[in-house]
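Subject: RagB/SusD family nutrient uptake outer membrane protein structure
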Amino acid sequence: MKRLNIYLVIFAIIAGLTACDDQLDVENPNSQTTFDFGNTESELQEAVIACYNRIRLEGTFARVGYVIDAVRGDEVWNSSQQWYIDADNLNHTSAYFMAEWPWRDNYHVVNRANFVLKKVEDVEMSEDSYNEIKGQALFLRSLAYYNLATIYQDVPLITNYDDYVDISTLYATTASQDSVLNKVEEDLTEAMKILPSRNEGGEWASGRATCGAAAGYMARTLMFRQKYAEAYTVLKDIIAGEYGNYALAADFGDNFKESTENNSESLFEVQFMDFGTGGTDEEWTPVNISPNATQGHAVEANYAPQDKGSWGDCAAAPWLYNLFKKETCTDGFPDPRLYWTLVTYEPEYNVVTDVATAAYPNGDPRTNVAYKSELSAVTGDKDNDWVLNYRSNTSQGGISIAKWTYARLDISEDVIVGLRSGINLRLMRYSDVLLRAAECENELNGPTQTAIDYINEVRQRVALPDLQLSDFPTADALFEQIANVERPKEFGCENGRGTDLIRWGFFYDDGRMQQIKEHAYYKLAPKQLYTWEEDGEEKQEEFVVVDLEELTSENASGSSYDSYVVGHEYFPVWQTNLDTNPNLTGNSANNNSDNSVAFFEKGYTVRPVYNLD
């Protein structure tokens, strides 16, 4: 009996130890894999947030992915002549390191969206939750593929998450641009049907993709392929409120402030915050995994005055400044979009009026202040002249860009470089819907009063005189107004101009190519002689200044399109990607091949240059 009791005690101890072992055998929540995550509704909601996180990387919209399209266009040039020089000159090779970043980070988005779209089909949840989760993943994957197709032309189309776990399907083959955009249209069509509108979504919809966002990007995708009739149907539905109620913000500047984010004008914007401490590990790692990493963007560090702390990489083309100056508002002021787009001194800004205007019902806020500093006129005072102290680049000059910076917000003394700006990047605004509707109406029926009315709604917001139909005898004339007056002034220095130049075929027509070449004239290191007295002695020195004069072939240093190589309106596929994936092929930029033949074979057209003067 004693021996039996001993055996029972030993057995009890062993059983107890085994039970303890089972209790300790728990899953580490920090070591989960895609095989054991995403099996509940709450986990899928987290996975959707992870998809949004990837559009805040440098290659998507936190810096490089946003800026490269701006310098590809004719409104912005690489004033540093360094970081973005190959992107600006459109002669980049497959060895260009920045060619990797948008590819890498947009495929981050695709990968995570594919994960959500695979898992969501097997999880029990309400129909509303299913639609919200699936719709957001479809939109974000479409956004990534729209970026990839418009940046790289032909790219692998990966839509099945299981492809990543099989070596035979891991290295996807290159798909044509049309195939990719067909998929974008297919996915956006479904997202438009299942996502809630901003009205229905309430607080949930603030900052998230809605059916309105999907409809807006559907119109963009269709117009990239010159499907004007189909795009016009979508745009008219947006205007009619089929996808939620949108309206222009009363103040144009509300589109560039943190205090007025996700407003009535915004169809979709990337949500940014600045709460990190900064630092190399936190900001510049490719996957941005530091727990203290900021969730801000670095567009300000590219755009703002270098003298105030930015890198001074980008400057606005003098063409854009002079375009603003050609027309004044009904109250006698310059177009207020100039104030919010460029950091310049304008004498009219010294008169702050309390008189209500159409543009600013609570008084006119425009003053000659940037980063809490007073901008002075050109007086010859080297310490106060804004042309010296608010340059995009201290060595090259250039007009600094105010959009997506704190320059006009009276918040900071200077620029804090890095991924630190918390201003949401509005990727699509209702004004884009209106101007695209005007473009489609003009392409299909124009010129018409309907097209003019769409344009005038945007102009009235900033108190510009209405356009008159009688001033535009042909569709070519009205297109010129839309493409090279209305859109540059409304969206100047924002992401999208480079893509517009491709869809309009400006790279495939000699007249249009010459036109954008002239738009992109710049002047390197313009200098001015300053005389001043110091310690009772007169001194003189030449300083680099901001040059605002209209540039021509005679007085410009050059154009950022002087070095354009055929086919390089797209970015090359990075050589390392080509070497790694045996099924990947290069695009027109890799091969220096002309896209004009294929462009016209599709039935696309280029409107000839029309002199509006």
